[in-house]
Amino acid sequence: MATALSRLGRWAFRHRWSTVGLWLALLVALGAVGAAFQGETDNSFTLPGSQSQQAIDTLNARFPAASGSTASIVFAPPAGQKVTDPGVSAAITRVIEAARKLPHTVELPGPAVPNSVAPDGSLAVANVAYDVPTTDLGDTDRNDLEATAAAGRAAGLTVEFSGAIVTGGDKSSAAEAVGLILALFILIITFGSLAAAGMPLLTGMVGVSVGLAGLTALSGVVSLSATAPVLAAMLGLAVGIDYALFIVSRHRSQLAKGMDTEDSVALAVGTAGSAVVFAGLTVLIALVGLSLVNIKFLTVMGLAAAGTVLVTVLVALTLVPAMLAIAGKRLVPAANSRAAKRETQTKTIGHNWVQFVTSRPVPVLLIGTLALCTLALPVLSMRLGLPSAGSAAPDSTERKSYELIAAHLGAGANGPLTILVDTKSTGGSAIKAAAKVSAELGTLSKDSGIVTPAVPAPDGTLAVMSLIPKSAPDSEATAALVRTIRHAEAELEKSTGSDVSVTGTTALGIDVSDALSSALPRFLAVVVGLALLLLGLVFRSIVVPVKAALGFLLTIGATLGCVVAVFQWGWLANVFGVNSTSPIISFLPVLMVGILFGLAMDYEVFLVSRIREDHVHGSEAHEAVKSGFRLGARVVTAAALIMTSVFSGFMITEDNVIKSLGFALALGVLIDAFVVRMTLVPAVLALFGKAAWWLPSWLEKALPRIDIEGEALRTKPTAPSGSVSDEAIVEPVG
């Protein structure tokens, strides 16, 4: 592999302008296609096979008028007035009439609007029904709906909106800009040169731009959630900068020692590029592996991010060497500069740290492991749930609507359960059966609330009613109520002669959370198993992959524990700008496992490959740990800080979904890079010594040999760059 990548790097070096032109042409072409065919984002959740989804499908097929998207308009009168006052009532009517004239809106079956009025007249809620699902509605429909508030607000009313149609929009705000600024600052410190610092940033941005342009082009035919492009940008930017950083750093180190520019580029791509390929492969495996959970929105998010990461790997292997060729000798550190001296320094911070760790490996392992296990303790009380309007940005209309409804009508009014009563199999009256079901629902649980009158489908064999719980949509009490109803379904069906099912946004969210909770151990087993296989293949060792997998589990546990403490318990909530506590977003643990697995293996590959490289090339095992760590620590440190900066940038958003994901990834990177990879890893390798690289002889023969240390490059004779062929490779230095 090292030889093939070295040839690719040399080709890109010699065809620098053609390579740059091809990437720019691809970016322009995808941008044009994206502008022409861009589709709307979709924030809906589906879970094929669940009771909630089956009930939704039944509604779509047999009662279309009740299966489309709905939105709610919330009205609060001026101080001292009621919604029933003539002037206020007239203003409410004008808003509702304007809303019902919008495209795709239909008359709701059931009681006249407003549908809900607070007993004291302090609030009214009107529902707007659409004849199409939320996936067929876009920004224009949302803007048109929100524009209807003008007539009510002109009369002094507070008018807010809720429902799937009003959620969405740009989640990233200035997050990318903040991350880029911090990344540039770290790169300048790392390289001591603006030109060298700007190159990983520039190529990383190109990779992300191409990836996002491709996603935009696909959004016209593939349904993307608003979070998918944000995740792709977040992860693509981080790994894109990091992958370029490893190659540029290796190249600049070789230039500082006198190597010819073209030969140095070829060698950097052959060695550091090999690590980039395997690091990128682990990220891709983890992200594509999200499809194993078999939930559409998570699969799309994983594939979208994987596509962007693949582009960044290709950029690192082709565009980066082309840009290095264009920069030429300008990247050579100036004589006596801090960057030049750093290449020959031995008493660095990294050297001192690895000396400390390897001289006392047992205490370091015990203290580090105990600390991470302590951080993981809050995981024992973790609750999962889908995001609700209660966790939206405080100034958003859905958050204001949620709080108004909770204050005046009760928290449960924000997430009514939809009850389907189906008598098609028995031929009885659905309305009569629904009346019996309604009477029994109130006796099932102390959290059962108000049951609205049933609405029959045209054929009379299906009836729909709403159960408004006493508890909030994302509370454990509501989840328990749904499970209680489902446990009682057999008795309800027997006593009423009907099939009873629970659905709606709240019930679907509970089903999705349960599915993700059960899928997490399976997914974790798959990615950890892949880590064992891949790292065993790369490093030809038993200890290294087992140590990497166990370290990853510690990272996941500690990170999730901190997420629970901040976002569910509210510890340090003000420090991190968490505007409300709530259950952890149900897809965060699975998504975090997928992403952090890839990043953890990045640092494992980059750091351990330098250690193994020194060991393979003759250094004694303990000395290889120290020398390899010293060479790799500075770059891994910069890479981890860059990733943390990019992920932290997404914490400035008010949206708790993006904020919690940014927090989890930023913290996870810090824990994995500095505690696990740069502390526990050298301690384990020092403790095992030469045995860390042991592999049974039968397995040694069975495994294919993959050269990521550039051993094949050492066997080739050095030739002047002006006469070297594609096969001629240089002797590596440093």
Concise structural overview:
This protein is α+β, with helices and mostly antiparallel strands and 734 residues long.
Structure description:
By secondary structure, the chain is an alpha+beta fold. It folds into three domains: 2-39 and 171-381 and 510-714, no CATH class; 61-166, Alpha-Beta Plaits (2-Layer Sandwich); 417-503, 2-Layer Sandwich (Alpha-Beta Plaits). 61% of the residues lie in helices and 7% in strands. It has 26 helices and twelve strands. It has helices at 2-14, 16-37, 51-62, 86-100, 139-147, 150-154, 175-191, 194-218, 227-256, 261-288, 296-327, 338-342, 349-359, 361-376, 397-409, 430-441, 476-487, 489-496, 505-539, 543-568, 573-576, 588-616, 621-649, 656-688, 697-702, 711-714; strands at residues 70-76, 105-106, 116-117, 124-130, 158-162, 384-385, 417-422, 450-451, 455-456, 462-468, 499-503, 584-585. The strands form three sheets. Strands 1, 2, 3, 4 and 5 form a five-stranded antiparallel sheet that branches. Strands 7, 8, 9, 10 and 11 form a five-stranded antiparallel sheet that branches. Strands 6-12 form a two-stranded parallel sheet. The radius of gyration is 30 Å and the shape is elongated.
